[in-house]
Amino acid sequence: MNKDLVVQFLEASLKRLQIDYVDLYLIHWPIGLQFVNEDEFVPRDKNGNLLFDFSTNISAIWEVMESMVDCGKAKAIGLSNFNQEQIERILKSCRIPPANLQVEVHAYFQQKSLREFCARNDIQICAYAPLASPFRQNYPNAADLNIPALLSDPVVQDIAKFHEKTAAQILLRYLVQELSVAVIPKTCNVTRLRENIEVFDFELTSTDLERLSELDRGENGRTWNSFDG
Question: Which is deepest, 23, 44, 107, 148, by most CB within 10 Å?
Answer without folding.
Answer: 107
